[in-house]
Amino acid sequence: MASKRSKKKRQEKESAEGVVETPELSQSDAPETDAAEAAPTADAEAQSELTTRLQRAVADLQNYRKQTEKRIHETRRFTKRDLFRELLPIVDTFKAALAAADQGQDPESVLVGVKMIHDMLVKFLSDHGVEPIDCSGQPFDPHFHEAVTSVPSEEHPPGAVVEEMQPGWKMDDLVVRHAKVIVASPPKGEEEVGDDEGPENGETKNGED
């Protein structure tokens, strides 16, 4: 009985001594293939995140552009409405003047109504910064004037505006319409004298003074 027990203990001891524990691998001992497989995954995630951000930025830009265009359109609409609202009283006055003319009223009364309409229009332009271009007696300026023709003049220096054929208008420094003008040229007598006085006429012949 005792021999059997000792034999059993001896077998358990031998089996215990024959067991070899397998050491755990540390993180540093992991195969290099795991790191190589993880790198493409991280690049794909970064690229996907960058694509998402770009798509959001493009969408935000498109929305901002649409909102800006809408605001500009609305601003133009309200600006036009206010402009036309100021013109309506002038239209009403013009209509009243036409009605008075049709009824055979005194021509002078009709003329007074027409002058009133003219003054209202000029005031309307002035309120919006549109002023007539000063021309008479001014030197010809191609930025503001358009020369229709030129005439000899003794009262005006050459190049000066003699007469305004059609008024010009400007808004601050921006020309709305150039003024059509007639420009002064030298009198005919002076032109002939100027033609006769050439460099060769002032030279001496054969070196004589």
Structural description of this entry:
This protein has 209 residues and is an alpha+beta fold. It contains five helices and six strands. Among the domains are: 56-128, Hemagglutinin Ectodomain, Chain B (Alpha-Beta Complex), CATH 3.90.20; 132-196, Nucleotide Exchange Factor Grpe, Chain A, domain 2. Helix content is 58%, strand content 15%. Helix 2 (32-102) runs antiparallel to helix 3 (107-127). The chain is elongated, with a radius of gyration of 49 Å. Residues 192-209 have low confidence and may be disordered.
Which CATH-level-2 architecture of the domain at 56-128? Alpha-Beta Complex
State the order of secondary-structure elements, H for helix, E for strand: HHHEEEEEEHH
Shape: elongated
Biggest sheet: strands, sense, closure?
A: 3 strands, antiparallel
Strand-residue proportion: 5-15%
Strand order of the largest sheet: 1-4-5
CATH topology of the domain at 56-128: Hemagglutinin Ectodomain, Chain B
Supply the key terms.
209 residues, Hemagglutinin Ectodomain, Chain B, elongated, 3-stranded antiparallel beta sheet
Question: What is the topological layout?
Answer:
Elements: H1 2-17, H2 32-102, H3 107-127, E1 130-132, E2 145-152, E3 161-166, E4 169-171, E5 174-177, E6 179-185, H4 188-196, H5 199-202
Parallel strand pairs: 2-6
Antiparallel strand pairs: 1-4, 3-6, 4-5
Helix pairs in contact: 2-3
